[in-house]
Amino acid sequence: MMKKADKNCFDLILHQKFNTRFLLMSSLLVGGGMTTHGFASGLTNHGKVEVVSLMKTKSVQQTPIKGVVKDASTGQGITGVSVKVKGSSTGTSTDENGAFTIQGKVGDVLIVSYIGYKSTEVTVSSKADLAISLTASQDALEEVVVTGYSTQRKKDLTGSVAVVNTDQLKTTPAASAVESLQGRATGVQVVTDGAPGSTPQIKIRGYSTINNNEPLYVIDGVPFEGKLSWLNQNDIETMQVLKDASAASIYGSRANNGVVIITTKSGKSGKPQINFDAYYGVQVPNSGRFPKMLSPQQIYNLNDNKDPLPDYLLAGDVSGNKVTPADADMSKYNYADNKEEFYQITKANKAGTNWFKELSQNAPTQSYQLNTVGGGENASYAVSGGYLGQKGTVIHTGFERFNVRSNTNFSAFNKKLRFGENMQYSMTKGHGVGVNTNTAGDYIGEGSAIGFAYRIKNINSGIR
Protein backbone atom coordinates (compact mmCIF):
# COMPACT_ATOMS: atom_id res chain seq x y z
CA MET A 1 0.00 0.00 0.00
CA MET A 2 1.50 3.42 -1.02
CA LYS A 3 0.19 6.89 -0.44
CA LYS A 4 1.67 10.34 -1.30
CA ALA A 5 2.82 12.45 1.63
CA ASP A 6 4.33 15.37 -0.33
CA LYS A 7 6.12 16.01 -3.60
CA ASN A 8 9.46 14.71 -2.34
CA CYS A 9 8.47 11.96 0.07
CA PHE A 10 6.36 8.83 -0.01
CA ASP A 11 5.35 6.77 2.95
CA LEU A 12 5.37 3.11 2.17
CA ILE A 13 3.45 0.81 4.50
CA LEU A 14 4.73 -2.70 4.18
CA HIS A 15 2.96 -5.54 5.96
CA GLN A 16 5.76 -8.00 5.42
CA LYS A 17 8.07 -9.55 7.91
CA PHE A 18 11.86 -9.02 7.76
CA ASN A 19 14.51 -10.39 10.04
CA THR A 20 17.29 -7.98 8.97
CA ARG A 21 17.87 -4.41 7.75
CA PHE A 22 16.67 -3.92 4.18
CA LEU A 23 17.16 -1.45 1.33
CA LEU A 24 14.51 -0.94 -1.33
CA MET A 25 15.55 0.79 -4.56
CA SER A 26 13.28 1.94 -7.35
CA SER A 27 13.80 3.63 -10.68
CA LEU A 28 10.96 5.28 -12.50
CA LEU A 29 11.09 6.62 -16.03
CA VAL A 30 9.35 9.97 -16.39
CA GLY A 31 8.82 12.23 -19.36
CA GLY A 32 11.29 14.66 -20.79
CA GLY A 33 14.24 12.33 -20.59
CA MET A 34 14.57 12.69 -16.81
CA THR A 35 15.07 9.74 -14.52
CA THR A 36 13.83 9.68 -10.95
CA HIS A 37 15.76 7.47 -8.56
CA GLY A 38 14.30 6.51 -5.24
CA PHE A 39 15.29 4.44 -2.27
CA ALA A 40 13.58 3.05 0.75
CA SER A 41 15.17 1.79 3.92
CA GLY A 42 13.98 0.65 7.28
CA LEU A 43 14.45 -1.56 10.31
CA THR A 44 12.38 -4.46 11.48
CA ASN A 45 10.12 -3.66 14.37
CA HIS A 46 9.03 -6.82 16.12
CA GLY A 47 9.39 -8.67 12.85
CA LYS A 48 7.33 -6.17 10.85
CA VAL A 49 8.30 -3.01 8.99
CA GLU A 50 5.87 -0.30 9.91
CA VAL A 51 6.91 2.82 7.84
CA VAL A 52 9.64 3.34 5.33
CA SER A 53 10.44 6.77 3.86
CA LEU A 54 10.98 6.78 0.11
CA MET A 55 12.97 9.84 -1.14
CA LYS A 56 13.40 10.79 -4.75
CA THR A 57 16.28 12.71 -6.37
CA LYS A 58 16.61 14.08 -9.86
CA SER A 59 19.60 14.21 -12.22
CA VAL A 60 19.36 16.52 -15.23
CA GLN A 61 20.71 15.25 -18.51
CA GLN A 62 23.62 17.38 -19.84
CA THR A 63 23.27 18.97 -23.27
CA PRO A 64 25.81 20.69 -25.56
CA ILE A 65 26.23 24.40 -24.82
CA LYS A 66 27.50 26.49 -27.70
CA GLY A 67 28.89 29.99 -27.80
CA VAL A 68 31.45 32.37 -29.24
CA VAL A 69 34.11 34.50 -27.52
CA LYS A 70 35.02 37.87 -29.05
CA ASP A 71 37.32 40.79 -28.30
CA ALA A 72 35.26 43.54 -26.67
CA SER A 73 37.09 46.29 -28.56
CA THR A 74 37.43 44.77 -32.05
CA GLY A 75 34.53 42.31 -32.11
CA GLN A 76 36.72 39.61 -33.61
CA GLY A 77 36.71 36.03 -32.38
CA ILE A 78 39.59 34.99 -30.12
CA THR A 79 41.32 31.69 -30.76
CA GLY A 80 42.44 29.41 -27.93
CA VAL A 81 40.29 30.86 -25.15
CA SER A 82 39.91 28.51 -22.18
CA VAL A 83 36.27 27.68 -21.31
CA LYS A 84 35.69 25.59 -18.19
CA VAL A 85 32.66 24.58 -16.13
CA LYS A 86 33.16 25.92 -12.64
CA GLY A 87 33.51 23.23 -10.02
CA SER A 88 34.21 20.44 -12.50
CA SER A 89 36.98 19.18 -14.75
CA THR A 90 34.96 19.76 -17.93
CA GLY A 91 36.62 22.24 -20.24
CA THR A 92 37.40 23.17 -23.82
CA SER A 93 38.93 25.93 -25.93
CA THR A 94 37.69 28.10 -28.78
CA ASP A 95 38.48 27.42 -32.43
CA GLU A 96 39.93 29.83 -35.01
CA ASN A 97 36.63 31.74 -35.09
CA GLY A 98 36.24 31.96 -31.33
CA ALA A 99 33.44 29.37 -31.22
CA PHE A 100 33.21 26.58 -28.63
CA THR A 101 30.98 23.68 -27.60
CA ILE A 102 30.94 22.27 -24.08
CA GLN A 103 28.77 19.76 -22.23
CA GLY A 104 26.71 21.36 -19.48
CA LYS A 105 23.24 22.28 -18.26
CA VAL A 106 21.23 25.32 -17.40
CA GLY A 107 22.58 26.92 -14.23
CA ASP A 108 26.21 25.99 -14.79
CA VAL A 109 28.84 28.74 -14.48
CA LEU A 110 31.45 28.95 -17.24
CA ILE A 111 34.90 30.39 -16.48
CA VAL A 112 36.33 32.08 -19.59
CA SER A 113 40.00 33.14 -19.50
CA TYR A 114 42.80 34.02 -21.89
CA ILE A 115 46.26 35.54 -21.53
CA GLY A 116 46.12 39.31 -21.94
CA TYR A 117 42.40 39.52 -21.07
CA LYS A 118 40.40 39.77 -17.88
CA SER A 119 38.82 36.48 -16.86
CA THR A 120 35.02 36.41 -16.69
CA GLU A 121 32.30 34.07 -15.42
CA VAL A 122 29.08 33.46 -17.38
CA THR A 123 25.98 31.68 -16.04
CA VAL A 124 24.10 29.48 -18.49
CA SER A 125 20.48 30.66 -18.32
CA SER A 126 19.06 28.98 -21.43
CA LYS A 127 19.97 26.66 -24.27
CA ALA A 128 20.53 29.57 -26.64
CA ASP A 129 24.04 30.19 -27.99
CA LEU A 130 26.20 32.36 -25.71
CA ALA A 131 27.92 35.54 -26.84
CA ILE A 132 30.87 36.36 -24.57
CA SER A 133 33.14 39.43 -24.79
CA LEU A 134 36.59 39.68 -23.14
CA THR A 135 38.23 42.95 -22.20
CA ALA A 136 42.00 43.41 -22.54
CA SER A 137 43.92 43.66 -19.27
CA GLN A 138 47.21 45.49 -18.83
CA ASP A 139 47.89 43.60 -15.62
CA ALA A 140 47.73 40.30 -17.50
CA LEU A 141 50.85 41.26 -19.39
CA GLU A 142 52.75 40.20 -16.30
CA GLU A 143 52.03 36.61 -17.28
CA VAL A 144 54.14 36.83 -20.45
CA VAL A 145 57.75 37.80 -21.11
CA VAL A 146 57.79 41.56 -20.58
CA THR A 147 61.33 42.39 -19.53
CA GLY A 148 64.14 44.78 -20.29
CA TYR A 149 66.32 47.22 -18.38
CA SER A 150 63.63 48.59 -16.09
CA THR A 151 61.63 45.67 -14.68
CA GLN A 152 62.71 42.05 -14.34
CA ARG A 153 60.80 39.36 -12.54
CA LYS A 154 61.44 35.67 -12.07
CA LYS A 155 58.28 34.56 -13.87
CA ASP A 156 59.14 36.80 -16.84
CA LEU A 157 61.83 34.38 -17.96
CA THR A 158 61.83 30.78 -19.06
CA GLY A 159 65.47 30.30 -18.10
CA SER A 160 67.12 29.54 -14.79
CA VAL A 161 66.65 32.33 -12.25
CA ALA A 162 67.68 32.51 -8.60
CA VAL A 163 65.86 34.98 -6.39
CA VAL A 164 67.83 36.06 -3.34
CA ASN A 165 66.12 36.90 -0.07
CA THR A 166 67.41 40.40 0.69
CA ASP A 167 66.42 40.09 4.34
CA GLN A 168 68.96 37.30 4.67
CA LEU A 169 71.62 39.44 2.99
CA LYS A 170 71.36 41.96 5.79
CA THR A 171 72.03 39.32 8.41
CA THR A 172 75.53 38.73 7.03
CA PRO A 173 78.14 41.27 8.23
CA ALA A 174 79.81 41.65 4.85
CA ALA A 175 81.23 44.73 3.18
CA SER A 176 79.88 43.72 -0.22
CA ALA A 177 76.43 42.57 -1.25
CA VAL A 178 78.01 40.04 -3.59
CA GLU A 179 79.87 38.44 -0.71
CA SER A 180 76.52 37.87 1.02
CA LEU A 181 75.42 35.81 -2.00
CA GLN A 182 77.59 32.94 -0.86
CA GLY A 183 75.39 29.92 -0.17
CA ARG A 184 72.15 31.76 -0.94
CA ALA A 185 71.83 31.22 -4.70
CA THR A 186 72.07 27.73 -6.16
CA GLY A 187 74.60 27.30 -8.93
CA VAL A 188 76.44 30.52 -8.02
CA GLN A 189 80.04 30.22 -6.85
CA VAL A 190 81.43 33.02 -4.70
CA VAL A 191 85.19 33.06 -4.10
CA THR A 192 86.69 35.63 -1.75
CA ASP A 193 90.23 36.21 -0.55
CA GLY A 194 89.12 37.64 2.80
CA ALA A 195 90.50 41.12 2.19
CA PRO A 196 88.60 43.89 3.99
CA GLY A 197 86.10 45.56 1.66
CA SER A 198 86.94 43.33 -1.27
CA THR A 199 84.38 42.26 -3.85
CA PRO A 200 84.73 38.51 -4.33
CA GLN A 201 84.81 36.72 -7.64
CA ILE A 202 81.40 35.40 -8.64
CA LYS A 203 81.04 32.53 -11.10
CA ILE A 204 77.56 31.76 -12.39
CA ARG A 205 78.38 29.32 -15.18
CA GLY A 206 81.95 28.42 -14.27
CA TYR A 207 85.03 29.67 -16.10
CA SER A 208 84.31 30.56 -19.71
CA THR A 209 87.51 32.46 -20.45
CA ILE A 210 90.99 33.01 -19.05
CA ASN A 211 90.23 36.72 -18.76
CA ASN A 212 87.07 38.24 -17.32
CA ASN A 213 84.51 35.82 -15.88
CA GLU A 214 82.53 38.40 -13.95
CA PRO A 215 78.76 38.67 -14.55
CA LEU A 216 76.94 41.73 -15.77
CA TYR A 217 75.32 43.79 -13.01
CA VAL A 218 72.12 45.68 -13.79
CA ILE A 219 71.41 48.21 -11.04
CA ASP A 220 68.08 50.00 -11.30
CA GLY A 221 68.01 49.23 -15.01
CA VAL A 222 71.54 50.53 -15.69
CA PRO A 223 74.16 47.95 -16.77
CA PHE A 224 77.36 48.04 -14.73
CA GLU A 225 80.56 46.05 -15.21
CA GLY A 226 82.98 46.07 -12.32
CA LYS A 227 83.13 45.51 -8.58
CA LEU A 228 80.40 46.42 -6.11
CA SER A 229 82.40 47.37 -3.04
CA TRP A 230 80.81 50.84 -3.27
CA LEU A 231 77.22 49.52 -3.02
CA ASN A 232 75.62 49.38 0.40
CA GLN A 233 73.69 46.12 0.75
CA ASN A 234 71.16 47.81 3.06
CA ASP A 235 69.98 49.85 0.04
CA ILE A 236 69.05 46.73 -1.96
CA GLU A 237 65.34 46.01 -2.38
CA THR A 238 65.51 42.93 -4.65
CA MET A 239 68.27 40.80 -6.17
CA GLN A 240 67.97 38.20 -8.90
CA VAL A 241 70.56 36.08 -10.68
CA LEU A 242 69.95 35.07 -14.32
CA LYS A 243 72.05 31.95 -14.67
CA ASP A 244 71.55 30.51 -18.14
CA ALA A 245 72.24 31.65 -21.69
CA SER A 246 68.72 33.03 -22.21
CA ALA A 247 69.87 36.23 -20.50
CA ALA A 248 71.85 37.02 -23.66
CA SER A 249 68.57 37.55 -25.52
CA ILE A 250 67.93 40.52 -23.24
CA TYR A 251 71.35 42.00 -22.54
CA GLY A 252 73.44 40.72 -25.43
CA SER A 253 76.98 39.37 -25.29
CA ARG A 254 77.71 41.16 -22.02
CA ALA A 255 75.48 38.58 -20.34
CA ASN A 256 77.81 35.76 -21.37
CA ASN A 257 78.82 35.20 -17.75
CA GLY A 258 75.33 35.64 -16.33
CA VAL A 259 73.44 38.65 -15.00
CA VAL A 260 72.85 39.92 -11.47
CA ILE A 261 69.81 42.21 -11.37
CA ILE A 262 69.67 44.60 -8.42
CA THR A 263 66.86 47.01 -7.57
CA THR A 264 67.49 49.58 -4.87
CA LYS A 265 64.93 50.91 -2.42
CA SER A 266 62.53 53.66 -3.47
CA GLY A 267 60.04 55.85 -1.68
CA LYS A 268 56.62 54.56 -0.57
CA SER A 269 53.40 56.32 0.23
CA GLY A 270 52.62 56.59 3.89
CA LYS A 271 54.02 57.97 7.09
CA PRO A 272 57.79 58.53 7.25
CA GLN A 273 59.66 55.46 8.44
CA ILE A 274 63.08 55.91 10.03
CA ASN A 275 65.33 52.90 10.48
CA PHE A 276 68.74 52.66 12.11
CA ASP A 277 70.83 49.52 11.71
CA ALA A 278 74.10 48.92 13.51
CA TYR A 279 76.31 45.95 14.23
CA TYR A 280 79.73 45.25 15.62
CA GLY A 281 81.66 42.04 15.24
CA VAL A 282 85.13 40.57 15.32
CA GLN A 283 86.78 38.31 12.76
CA VAL A 284 89.12 35.80 14.34
CA PRO A 285 91.78 34.05 12.21
CA ASN A 286 91.59 30.28 12.22
CA SER A 287 95.00 29.72 13.76
CA GLY A 288 94.38 26.00 13.90
CA ARG A 289 94.83 25.85 10.13
CA PHE A 290 98.16 27.68 10.11
CA PRO A 291 100.91 25.41 8.74
CA LYS A 292 103.46 24.14 11.23
CA MET A 293 106.88 25.37 10.18
CA LEU A 294 110.31 23.92 10.98
CA SER A 295 112.11 25.20 14.05
CA PRO A 296 115.35 27.21 13.62
CA GLN A 297 117.39 24.23 14.86
CA GLN A 298 115.73 21.97 12.26
CA ILE A 299 116.43 24.45 9.49
CA TYR A 300 120.03 24.75 10.67
CA ASN A 301 120.45 20.98 10.56
CA LEU A 302 119.10 20.86 7.00
CA ASN A 303 122.35 22.47 5.86
CA ASP A 304 124.42 19.53 7.19
CA ASN A 305 125.21 21.39 10.38
CA LYS A 306 125.69 18.95 13.23
CA ASP A 307 126.51 21.59 15.83
CA PRO A 308 123.89 23.29 17.97
CA LEU A 309 122.50 26.57 16.75
CA PRO A 310 124.93 29.40 17.61
CA ASP A 311 123.94 32.33 19.75
CA TYR A 312 124.83 34.82 17.00
CA LEU A 313 124.40 34.45 13.26
CA LEU A 314 126.56 37.40 12.32
CA ALA A 315 128.87 39.86 13.99
CA GLY A 316 130.74 42.08 11.57
CA ASP A 317 132.52 39.80 9.11
CA VAL A 318 132.30 36.75 11.40
CA SER A 319 129.37 34.33 11.23
CA GLY A 320 128.06 31.21 12.91
CA ASN A 321 130.01 29.40 15.62
CA LYS A 322 133.08 31.54 14.92
CA VAL A 323 131.48 34.56 16.59
CA THR A 324 133.16 35.30 19.92
CA PRO A 325 131.79 37.37 22.82
CA ALA A 326 134.18 40.14 21.78
CA ASP A 327 132.81 40.15 18.26
CA ALA A 328 129.25 40.35 19.63
CA ASP A 329 130.00 43.42 21.76
CA MET A 330 127.02 45.72 21.11
CA SER A 331 129.23 48.78 21.44
CA LYS A 332 130.64 47.88 18.04
CA TYR A 333 127.23 47.93 16.37
CA ASN A 334 127.14 50.67 13.77
CA TYR A 335 124.50 51.06 11.06
CA ALA A 336 126.52 53.31 8.80
CA ASP A 337 126.13 54.26 5.17
CA ASN A 338 129.60 53.21 4.12
CA LYS A 339 130.85 49.66 4.10
CA GLU A 340 134.01 50.38 6.06
CA GLU A 341 132.16 51.63 9.16
CA PHE A 342 129.13 49.34 8.87
CA TYR A 343 129.05 46.73 11.66
CA GLN A 344 126.03 44.44 11.99
CA ILE A 345 125.25 42.08 14.85
CA THR A 346 122.46 39.51 14.36
CA LYS A 347 121.44 37.32 17.25
CA ALA A 348 119.95 33.91 16.54
CA ASN A 349 116.28 33.49 17.41
CA LYS A 350 116.50 29.98 18.83
CA ALA A 351 112.83 29.88 19.84
CA GLY A 352 111.77 30.80 16.31
CA THR A 353 109.07 33.18 15.10
CA ASN A 354 105.58 32.07 14.13
CA TRP A 355 105.16 34.51 11.28
CA PHE A 356 101.57 33.53 10.63
CA LYS A 357 100.70 34.47 14.18
CA GLU A 358 102.72 37.66 14.01
CA LEU A 359 101.09 38.80 10.77
CA SER A 360 97.49 38.04 11.80
CA GLN A 361 95.17 39.75 14.23
CA ASN A 362 91.59 39.80 15.44
CA ALA A 363 89.75 42.14 13.08
CA PRO A 364 86.77 44.19 14.33
CA THR A 365 84.02 45.19 11.91
CA GLN A 366 81.43 47.90 12.54
CA SER A 367 78.57 49.27 10.49
CA TYR A 368 76.08 52.09 11.05
CA GLN A 369 73.25 52.74 8.59
CA LEU A 370 70.44 55.30 8.83
CA ASN A 371 67.59 55.52 6.30
CA THR A 372 64.16 57.09 5.98
CA VAL A 373 61.36 56.22 3.57
CA GLY A 374 58.05 57.97 3.02
CA GLY A 375 55.87 59.89 0.63
CA GLY A 376 52.42 61.00 -0.36
CA GLU A 377 50.17 60.99 -3.40
CA ASN A 378 52.45 63.15 -5.55
CA ALA A 379 55.87 62.66 -3.98
CA SER A 380 57.96 59.89 -2.47
CA TYR A 381 61.47 59.70 -1.12
CA ALA A 382 64.09 57.28 0.17
CA VAL A 383 67.23 58.74 1.76
CA SER A 384 70.01 56.83 3.47
CA GLY A 385 73.51 57.30 4.77
CA GLY A 386 76.00 55.10 6.50
CA TYR A 387 79.52 54.14 7.49
CA LEU A 388 81.34 50.81 7.33
CA GLY A 389 84.69 50.18 8.99
CA GLN A 390 86.44 46.85 8.61
CA LYS A 391 89.86 45.83 9.85
CA GLY A 392 91.75 43.08 8.08
CA THR A 393 92.90 39.84 9.67
CA VAL A 394 96.37 40.74 8.34
CA ILE A 395 97.97 43.49 10.39
CA HIS A 396 97.99 47.05 9.05
CA THR A 397 95.13 46.40 6.61
CA GLY A 398 91.60 47.79 6.61
CA PHE A 399 88.72 49.24 4.65
CA GLU A 400 86.33 52.14 5.17
CA ARG A 401 83.24 53.22 3.25
CA PHE A 402 81.09 56.31 3.55
CA ASN A 403 77.86 56.24 1.55
CA VAL A 404 74.96 58.64 0.94
CA ARG A 405 71.96 57.84 -1.23
CA SER A 406 68.85 59.75 -2.30
CA ASN A 407 65.93 58.48 -4.39
CA THR A 408 63.05 60.91 -4.87
CA ASN A 409 60.06 60.94 -7.19
CA PHE A 410 57.61 63.78 -7.86
CA SER A 411 54.54 63.98 -10.09
CA ALA A 412 52.51 66.94 -11.33
CA PHE A 413 49.62 67.82 -13.65
CA ASN A 414 47.51 64.87 -12.50
CA LYS A 415 50.53 62.56 -12.71
CA LYS A 416 51.07 63.38 -16.37
CA LEU A 417 54.54 64.73 -15.53
CA ARG A 418 56.96 62.81 -13.35
CA PHE A 419 60.47 63.75 -12.36
CA GLY A 420 62.98 62.77 -9.72
CA GLU A 421 66.49 61.52 -9.13
CA ASN A 422 68.32 58.42 -8.00
CA MET A 423 71.73 59.44 -6.69
CA GLN A 424 74.36 57.58 -4.72
CA TYR A 425 77.76 58.75 -3.54
CA SER A 426 80.27 56.40 -1.97
CA MET A 427 83.79 57.05 -0.79
CA THR A 428 85.87 53.95 -0.17
CA LYS A 429 89.33 53.78 1.32
CA GLY A 430 91.43 50.65 1.59
CA HIS A 431 94.89 50.51 3.07
CA GLY A 432 97.48 47.81 3.53
CA VAL A 433 99.34 45.29 1.39
CA GLY A 434 97.07 43.33 -0.91
CA VAL A 435 93.91 45.32 -0.18
CA ASN A 436 92.48 46.03 -3.61
CA THR A 437 88.72 46.28 -3.79
CA ASN A 438 88.77 45.88 -7.57
CA THR A 439 91.03 42.82 -7.85
CA ALA A 440 90.49 39.72 -5.77
CA GLY A 441 93.36 37.42 -4.82
CA ASP A 442 96.14 39.88 -3.93
CA TYR A 443 95.35 39.62 -0.22
CA ILE A 444 96.52 36.00 -0.04
CA GLY A 445 98.50 35.76 -3.26
CA GLU A 446 102.19 35.00 -3.80
CA GLY A 447 103.25 38.57 -3.14
CA SER A 448 101.03 39.11 -0.11
CA ALA A 449 102.09 39.18 3.53
CA ILE A 450 100.74 35.64 3.92
CA GLY A 451 102.81 34.56 0.94
CA PHE A 452 105.96 35.96 2.50
CA ALA A 453 105.19 34.16 5.77
CA TYR A 454 106.06 30.91 3.99
CA ARG A 455 109.43 32.25 2.85
CA ILE A 456 110.71 34.32 5.76
CA LYS A 457 113.12 32.31 7.93
CA ASN A 458 111.66 31.93 11.37
CA ILE A 459 115.11 32.27 12.88
CA ASN A 460 114.67 36.03 12.42
CA SER A 461 112.93 37.95 15.16
CA GLY A 462 109.42 39.26 14.60
CA ILE A 463 109.06 43.01 15.05
CA ARG A 464 105.63 44.67 14.98
UniProtKB/TrEMBL annotation:
Q: Does the keyword Transit peptide apply?
A: no
Tell me where it mainly resides.
membrane
Please report the record's description of how this protein sits within the membrane: Multi-pass membrane protein
Q: Which residues cross the membrane?
A: none
Q: Which organism is it from?
A: Sphingobacterium zeae
The name on file for this protein is: TonB-linked SusC/RagA family outer membrane protein
- Family statement: Belongs to the TonB-dependent receptor family.
Keywords for this protein:
Cell outer membrane, Membrane, Transmembrane, Transmembrane beta strand, Transport
The entry's localization annotation reads:
Cell outer membrane
**Which segments constitute the TonB-dependent receptor plug domain?**
154-259
